[in-house]
Hints:
Layout: H1 2-20, E1 32-38, H2 42-58, E2 62-68, H3 74-83, E3 90-94, H4 98-103, H5 111-116, H6 126-132, E4 133-134, E5 137-138, E6 141-142, E7 144-153, H7 154-159, H8 175-188, H9 202-214, H10 234-245, H11 259-264, E8 270-274, H12 277-283, E9 288-292, E10 302-305, E11 307-310, H13 319-334, H14 336-339, E12 345-346, H15 349-352, H16 355-358, H17 363-366, E13 373-374, H18 382-397, H19 403-418
Parallel strand pairs: 1-2, 1-3, 10-13
Antiparallel strand pairs: 3-11, 4-5, 6-11, 7-8, 7-9, 7-10, 7-12
Helix pairs in contact: 9-10, 9-18, 10-19, 18-19
Amino acid sequence: MVKKAMLFLLCLFLITLAACSKTSQTTSDGRINLDYWVLFGGGDLGYMQDIVSEFNESQDEIYVNIILQDFDDYYTKLVTSVAANRGPDVAVSHAATVPELVNQGLTTPLNDLAGHVDMDFNDFYDNLKDAMEVEGEYHAVPIDSHPFILYVNTDLAEEADLLDENGQPIIEETPEGFKDFFMKARQALPDKTGIAITTGGLDVYRWWWTTYFQMGGTPIFSDDLTDPEITLDQDIAVEAAEYVHSFFGDIIPMHLSDPYETFQSGNAFSLMTGVWGTGIWENADLPFTAVPYPQLFDVEAAQGGSHTLIMPIKEESTDARQQAKMEFIKYVSDSGLKWAEAGHIPSKPEIVESEPFQELPYRSDYSSISPYIVFTDSTIYQSAAETDMTRSLDEIMAGRLTAEEGIKKMVHDLEVTIR
């Protein structure tokens, strides 16, 4: 048994070593060989594979290998591989995670390199550009924004007489009017779920975030990478949580297990989630429309994130390889029209304002909120803070804590996290 166990461990070691081995720096035909790590699943992956293929075919000096990594442990693998100098040449990172990677010394500043390929960070939306900056330097290039939006089943909405002459939902953009829209749907369609969303989890967090900042909420943290102060406005946080919670029961059933399946099967009037659902519903031939989450309060604000490209540090990188990496990064950021087919909003206003993008269904309808996305604060505690906030909101939505109790718990947990 001992010998078998030792043999198993040896095999595991060899498999791991093989998996972590470095790709040859050049291809057999002399092209610079680059490894590109992605975390995409579902329809997103196919669109990104197309972009990489198009890049490889567009020139004969650089070849990019797209490598899919498992989402659940993506960042753990990324940190470990880069620390061992076996990381990818280019990698996808969510904007919220970039400050943590920068603080660990794992990313390459891109200010100077961007100039070498004629890439100007001023070409991106201002809020996106600001989200890429960490302590005065850009460490990532945004390729999209993906806000929290509303999907409505148009067949059901037509049945409930809730569409205008253009086939768009008739929503009065007030807190009461928004809720009334779904109450009318429930009255007309009593056997359908009003909004397909879970009682807890990230979509409720996204909804609360949108509401909080529309109400005039202050940033969660002060502007400090490693030693921030909590600047959350607790009164507004409570008010936002109470508003979201008021939808549960009559409009949203408690503890819905699978919102996506409920919506796709035609058993839900609507669903709220990120824009990545657009490509999914199109491919499923679902009768739907996708619209921005409306401005219900004083401030035009939306929750959203961004997929970015980073250049992990590598000891052996030459100027030629750094240039090649940057050329690929620029190519992907310029391919926003193709990437928009997955549902995302391109990171550059020039692409969004172009006629080809404006002709895309749905995307042009919700792209208007891209400049108003409130991105997360530039702090190393963002990932842990998101977990803290989501857990507290779970307790509120499930009715185990009042909104006031839940927000007090949220602030306490945030204080523990940053100390």
